[in-house]
Design a protein that fits this description.
The structure holds two protein chains of two kinds. Chain A is α/β, with parallel strands linked by helices. Chain A contains nine helices and eight strands. In chain B, helix 2 (39-51) links the parallel strand 2 (29-32) and strand 3. Classes of the chains: A alpha/beta, B alpha/beta. Strand 2 (80-83) of chain A pairs parallel with strand 10 of chain B.
Chain lengths: 289, 388
Amino acid sequence: MTPETNPTRTPDDAPRAGHPFDPELREGRIPHIWCPGCGIGSVLQAFLEAVDGAKIDRDELSVVSGIGCTGRAAGYLNADSFHTTHGRPIPFATGLKLARPELRVCVVSGDGDLAAIGGNHLIHAARRNVDLTVICINNLNYGMTGGQAGPTTPIAAKTATSPYGCHEHPFNLVDLVATCGAVYVARWISMDVRRVRRSIEEAFTKKGFTFIEVLAPCPVSFGRRNRMDDAAMGRILVERCEIRNGADPRETAIGEEGPIVCGKFVDIERPSYLEMLADVRKRVEEAPA
Amino acid sequence: MSREVLTGTHFISGNIACAEGAIAAGCRFFAGYPITPSTEIAERLSARLLEVGGTYIQMEDEIASSIAIVGASWGGVKSMTATSGPGFSLMQEHIGFAFITETPTVLVDIQRAGPSTGLPTAVGQGDMMQARWGTHGDHEIIALCPASPQELFDLTVRAFNIAERLRTPVLVMSDEIVGHMVERVEIPHQDAIEIVDRARPPGPPEMLPHPYESYETSEADCGIPPMAIAGEGYHVNMTGLTHDERGYPAMNPEAQEKLMHRLVAKIRSHADELDLCVEDGVEDAEVVVIAYGIAARVSQGAVRRAREAGRKVGLLRLQIAWPFPEDRVARIAKSARGIVVPEINLGQMVREVERVAHGNARVVSVSHAGGHYPPAEALLAAIEEVSA
């Protein structure tokens, strides 16, 4: 749903109560474009709380997004924010991080952006163990363009481009990035804001490629085609969510039925890209001229 | 630590000269993907950038390379990528992204014969119109055309300076022969190389109005906003969406009109600075050859031979293809009887020459499909044809 057609959008001059996170957001950017019942906003708040909790200087925070509903996240934040091209926030963030290693560079983007068009970048960034915090908000479809099937759409789900049910096998994102070498991998649901916040805060303490998938309801684009109007999609995520910290990522695929396994699955140490690069730099400096 | 500028006389290929030009210009970030015939640029920089404290990263593809350099530039580091034919096709979206976000960066295309995989190891000049119009949507682009290893050094430095000055991506459109040709290259002393750095905000963030209008421009800055970078407290707001002076998305035709006109005008209004051409005997010539890259080198020999045969022939060598040096070519079309345009494509820049000549001179294309330069004999025949 575009902002122009979003019936819930209030005019800019409508009076509204202040929010404790107003100073964290760019002046004049709210109301946001997200639909009622969407889970992106609560993840964004959890992200901001994690930034505060980790005592990250706002001037040293860069947030990079791609294109799509979650792609709009970066631009709302009162920090250095980069709204890049579809699928490419990770290579943009890689260039930024290598140019300014002292900055905290985070990618906040959607499942279609990061795992379909940007899938190649996702796996290679995990392989390199680039020092990035990647938050993938997974709403199981392409929300902004009106609810088409994507790489995470469950089998049999109805979407605008799978009217008879999706017949493609979806990615299990946490297994994918764990296999590629990410040092921190977790999955949560957007309603579990406390665990989302704690997990992001924990990821901030790690060097290397950290990945947090957050399943978010998308009642307007995905839910209504799958008999999950209004709060139903969120309720079903809550009902199916089963926390199993330390579970083998290979055992966490999201099926048509049964539990949606959430938790922290990977928390390992592996030299990060910047650490590996520092080693090379040392060798170059020590090499005879 | 090794020297940043390799001052002295060298016997090196165009691709190596390009890499050294980048280092001399202050480039400290290169993201690339190996592709013939540009690979030597990446190879050289993978060593040299580390030696001068910069960063080289080999990305997973050219799409990633072309946006990693945009990210690095917003980190305040001069950045570049280099590629050839198919890789250049993959980079097109981010040329437009760098244009609308006003990101200084340099993209080098060592052209080979295409389309598709074509002749990967052999020369072509078929990407000239892609350079101009390859990214979607309207825009203005700057593309330089070196014709020798020396010019691959000089014009790569120039490309960085123009990119920084105008806050826009700059293309270096060379070709396989110039890239692989080994010639003498003079690298000046560091102090003799002009270096331009982007304009920075007029003060620290706390001294500026809030919210900071980072895309606000004035007459004084010629429509080029000073560039705030990440990590300095400006809270940079950057988007590929049409945006207003604050960088906020502005989804309406008025904002589109305003932004597009400013972005295009900031380049067109600097046309005088961008009129990079070398004239040889053009003023009183009856026939003028207009060429760029390796085709211009071949033209030098053909022009000499035609003069020996008594013809009044001049040569206009384009060091810049875009913006096309319209005034200069229009003048030539009025003073000369004929214009010959040799290219290693089936006629691309000749269309611009025809458009600008506006019927004032006869324009003849000497085309070659690629894999070889246009032979001097074909040029001589064309010169005879328009002289007759």
